[in-house]
Design brief:
By secondary structure, the chain is an alpha/beta fold. Helix content is about 30%, strand content about 20%. The chain has nine helices and nine strands. The strands form three sheets. The protein has a four-stranded mixed sheet. The two termini are about 25 Å apart.
Length: about 280
C-alpha cells in the first residue's frame, strides 16, 4: 500500500488548516517517503555545503467536478498563491495551471495539471469512472499531502490505463501527492550550472530522464531543466496482485533573467511535456 504520513481525524478535518510552511513541510515528508532518491540527492548536495531550495512542486488530477483545476485555484489561494499562467499538452490530453505567491520570487511555485478524461478511449474512461467513484465533496489541501481517495484498480485496469495514458496509470495508483520537488539550481553555490549538477548526478549513478535530451530547454527559453526517473514502490492492486510501480522523481531547474530583471517565473510546455515522462513505466 502507498505510505501516508498520517491520517487526519475526519471529525476535525473541516477545521484543520495549514500555513504555507506547514503545507510544504508535510508535502516534503510524504514525498521522500516514496522517493528515497530525493533524500539521497539532497544529502549529496548538503555534504558539498549547499543549502538546497525548492523551485516548484507539481500535482496531478483527473478533470472530475470538485477535483479538477476549477477547485485548485481556491485551494492554493488559502496559502497565498494565485494563478499566473496556463498550458495545454494535446498529445498527453492534459492542461495545467501555474501558481505563484505575488511579489515573492523566492517562494516555490506550484504546477498543477489535470487529465482530460473525455479525450481517452471509452474503456479507459470507464476504468477512470470506476476507480474515482468513491470521490465525494471537493479536493482539499490536506488531500494533497498524501491522500489515496480512489478505488484501487486491478492490475489489468492499471495496465490498460498506462497503455492509454501513463499519466492516468500513475495517478490511479499514487493518488494525491507531489509527483516531484525541484532543486533551484540558481541557489547552489558550488555548482554554477545545471551541467555541473548533471555531471554530479551521473557520477553518483542517478538515472536521468533523457526524453528530448537530458537537459531540456535553452538559454532563449529562459529556463533549463532536467529530472531523474521515478523511484518505484510496491503496490497491491484490487485483485490481490502486487507489482512495483513508478512513484515520484526529483527535478532540477535553472532560470535566466527576463525583461523585468527577475528570474523567469513560468514553464516551457515542450520541456514539461518531456518531464511528464519521468513517471512512465520503464522496460
Amino acid at each position: 500500500m502507498i505510505p501516508v504520513p498520517w491520517i487526519i481525524d475526519e471529525l476535525h478535518k473541516e477545521t484543520f488548516r495549514m500555513n504555507r510552511d506547514e503545507f510544504f513541510d508535510s508535502l516534503w515528508r510524504q514525498y521522500i517517503s516514496v522517493t528515497p532518491q530525493a533524500r539521497g540527492i539532497q544529502s549529496l548536495l548538503l555534504r558539498r555545503g549547499e543549502e538546497v531550495t525548492n523551485d516548484h512542486v507539481a500535482f496531478r488530477t483527473f478533470d472530475i467536478q470538485g477535483f479538477g483545476l476549477e477547485i485548485v485555484t481556491e485551494l492554493v489561494a488559502e496559502i497565498g498563491y494565485e494563478r499566473f499562467d496556463s498550458y495545454v499538452f494535446p498529445d498527453k490530453h492534459l492542461r495545467a495551471h501555474a501558481y505563484r505567491v505575488p511579489n515573492e520570487h523566492d517562494a516555490p511555485k506550484i504546477f498543477f495539471s489535470e487529465l482530460i478524461c473525455a479525450e481517452l478511449d471509452s474503456d479507459s474512461q470507464a476504468i477512470i469512472a470506476e476507480i474515482t467513484s468513491p470521490l465525494t465533496g471537493e479536493l482539499t489541501l490536506e488531500d494533497l499531502v498524501g491522500a489515496y481517495l480512489f478505488k484501487r484498480p486491478t492490475l489489468e485496469q492499471y495496465s490498460r490505463l498506462c497503455d492509454a495514458s501513463e499519466y492516468a496509470g500513475w495517478l490511479s495508483t499514487m493518488g494525491y501527492q507531489a509527483n516531484h520537488f525541484t532543486v533551484n539550481v540558481n541557489g547552489l553555490r558550488t555548482l554554477d550550472s545545471i551541467d555541473g549538477l548533471i555531471d554530479l548526478l551521473v557520477a553518483n549513478q542517478y538515472p536521468l530522464n533523457d526524453v528530448g535530451g537530458v537537459i531540456k530547454g535553452t538559454t532563449s527559453d529562459l529556463l533549463v531543466q532536467a529530472s531523474t526517473l521515478a523511484d518505484t514502490i510496491r503496490f497491491e492492486f484490487e485483485d490481490g496482485f502486487e507489482s512495483d510501480i513508478p512513484s515520484c522523481f526529483y527535478e532540477f531547474a535553472y532560470r535566466f533573467t527576463d525583461s523585468t530583471g527577475q528570474p523567469f517565473q513560468g514553464f516551457i510546455p515542450n520541456s514539461a511535456n518531456a518531464i511528464f515522462e519521468s513517471t512512465n513505466r520503464q522496460p
